[in-house]
Amino acid sequence: MHDALIFTPDHVDLTRSPLRRGIAEPTYVLGAFNPGFTRLPNGNLLLMVRIAEALSEPVRDGHVHAIRWTPAGYVLDAWPLEQVDMTDPRQFELKGSRHRILALTSLSWLLPVELDPAGERIVAIHYDAAIEPAAGYQCYGVEDARITRIGDIWYMTACSVGAERHCTTLHTSRDGLHYRLEGIVLDHQNKDMILFEGLVGDRFMALTRPLGEVYFAYPPDSPWVGGPSINFAQSPDTLHWKPLDAPGLRARKGSRSAMKIGGGTQPVLTRDGWLMIYHGVEARESVGIYRSFWALLDRDDPAHILRLEDETPLLEADPALTAPIAYQMYLPTPVVFSTGLVDSGDDYLVASGEADLACRMTRLPKGMFA
Questions:
Q1: CA torsion sign, 97 to 99 to 105 to 109?
Q2: Which of 134, 157, 174, 314 is buried most deeply by CB count within 10 Å?
Q3: Which residue windows are transmembrane per the record (predicted)?
Q4: DSSP code of 49?
């Protein structure tokens, strides 16, 4: 196994940020992480990196400020400090509401970064193809892209964040680099939607993860624990999705991911079935410890789980990787969040977000999944 950070906040030129259209206040890169990952027609690799851009001084004059997109440009909203809870460094919560209402201390946009075929060197950073908010349902940003190539089309899902809704949106591309927004495909708080890299029968298939305020209990003797889990959905056209009736991947009691699980990389077809890498979270402080695990799904019926490896992590956060940029870290717990997988002959290349800060590239021998 070979590991390295391939893209960090220091690689980003904020003079070319889309936020310069409206925000004159100084900003910095809170994180450059959780990249969508695919191979381009020229053989090079593409990372679609989430750039979380934050105000250098969000608190001033007794207020905390949030960045928001509008059709006329980017603006700042000021909230009195006595009305918010800023315990989580990534967001703040409005006090006194009947519902949990959040605003973000950063706004995320997506930056295409082209790598050499081996994933070892940056070839180009395509600021001209960056993806930024374009509608009210994205006014607080576009996050955590996942890219799947099916035939001659690249499908990219992302989490769009706004006061109108917290939803999954779809972009498509004919060259893997330049993407067109197709709109909302899954509604409120359905995160980590990832298309399978190929059809199942005549249908598109995707992983989803619906979130909610309430989860119902399994029986006391069940091996499963209630909470966020990975579900499946199918579609005739990638725009209209029906959830499968069968349950998907669920967190097991006593496992190292009992807090919650969610999709990671796009499922790819192997001779043994659909291989997917997913994230599992162990409860710890406010964020939890994020690790990467893997599963194998039946090629004809992906709801039939052939193998679930949730005991020994495939990837864990590695402090040695982030040691040179440790002064930039802001999360108190270890996080690795795998977001893309590409075939590289005898190996798989796995792209991940490390510590919600940088992009990590890992080379894994295919024999690890035998």
A1: negative
A2: 157
A3: none
A4: E
- Rg, Å, the chain Cα set: 20
The amino acid that residue 43 corresponds to is G
Contact 85, 95 (CB under 8 A): yes
Q: What separation in angstroms does the CA of 218 have from each of 34, 125, 153, 228, 262?
A: 32, 48, 40, 13, 19
Residue 273 has a pLDDT of 98
Domain spans of the chain? 2-369
Confidence of residue 6 (pLDDT cuts 50, 70, 90): very high
> Given 3-state DSSP classes, what are the helix, strand and coil percentages for the chain, each rounded to the nearest 5?
10, 50, 40
pTM of the shown model? 0.96
pLDDT score for 188: 83
With a pLDDT cut of 90, the percent of the chain lying above it is 88
Q: Are 352 and 315 in contact (CB under 8 A)?
A: yes
CATH code of the region 2-369: 2.115.10.20
- Residue 288, by phi and psi: left (phi above 0), alpha (psi -120 to 50) or beta? left
The per-residue pLDDT of the chain, averaged, comes to 95
Q: What number of CA atoms fall less than 13 Å from residue 221's CA on the CB side?
A: 0
pLDDT value of residue 105: 82
